[in-house]
Amino acid sequence: MKFAAALVALISASLVSSEVVWSFKKYQDGVEVDFEEGPVTKFQSQALQKVSDARRKRIDSRIAGRSTQTTVTSSNWCGAAVTGTTFSSVVGTWTVPAITRRSGQSSGSEPAISQWVGIDGYSDDALIQGGTISQLVSGSQQNAAWTEMLPAASKDVSLTVETGDKITVNVTATGTSSGTVTLENVTRGTSVVGKVSGGSRLSQNSAEWILEDFEEGSSLVAFAGFPTSTFTGSAIKSGTSVSPASATLIDIVQSSTLCSATLSGSTVELSDS
Ligand SMILES: *[C@@H]1O[C@H](CO)[C@@H](O)[C@H](O)[C@H]1NC(C)=O
Ligand SMILES: *[C@@H]1O[C@H](CO)[C@@H](O)[C@H](O)[C@H]1NC(C)=O
Asked: Domains in the chain, please, with CATH?
């Protein structure tokens, strides 16, 4: 697989990650086809890292009486999270964007982003998720689809993803430490279904749609520039469908704001800034 520069084929099963067991099936237009497992990625998504608990209220002054939207800041997450009890499922659709190097990033810095949906991780350290990563490697963009259940590292799922592809991911908790992640290349009718058990106990108290500056080793990767991107989708909370319209928004702030989340109806919009 040509994503070799961004993936580590050799990973010894650590005590912690060996508890998390995934099994995958792949489908083309609904018919099962051979699934070849990709290597474990060297990237890892992390629970929300808040840089500030100071909550800013955004009031749309143009619409009298409109409810306020709460935005929190984070060093690694940008997007929207719905909180409460009990989330059993979340689905999100996005397009894999053409990413760029930010000014000041050297050609060797290989900037990247990931986009995903997941359950938990907003107010706890458990997290089950699935999504895509995009990275500039020697100037050209490479993309991959992955699943992750903390505390194990993410797994590449061998679903070819091209820049511009429309991706839909459904993450469903089937127990307190088990779940199903379905990743679909909507453009081509290809999907991968991963079932997982083990890992951190899920509290199911958040569901989120996130564009992340993820970690490689224990530091954040260079965060790529991206065109304005969106998530559409919904979550299931105590059996009822909820949209991101009531979500808390999350901006990435490092030395400056790098990504701002807003809502347009129930569509989450992410702007590079
Ligand atoms: C995710 O898929 C499951 C199984 O098909 C479905 O029951 C659930 O409603 C989906 N989740 C959402 C949020 O639509
Ligand atoms: C997903 O769809 C795109 C077409 O937009 C295609 O280039 C890519 O190879 C597809 N992936 C798979 C696994 O079929």
From this structure: 21-272 (2.60.120.700)
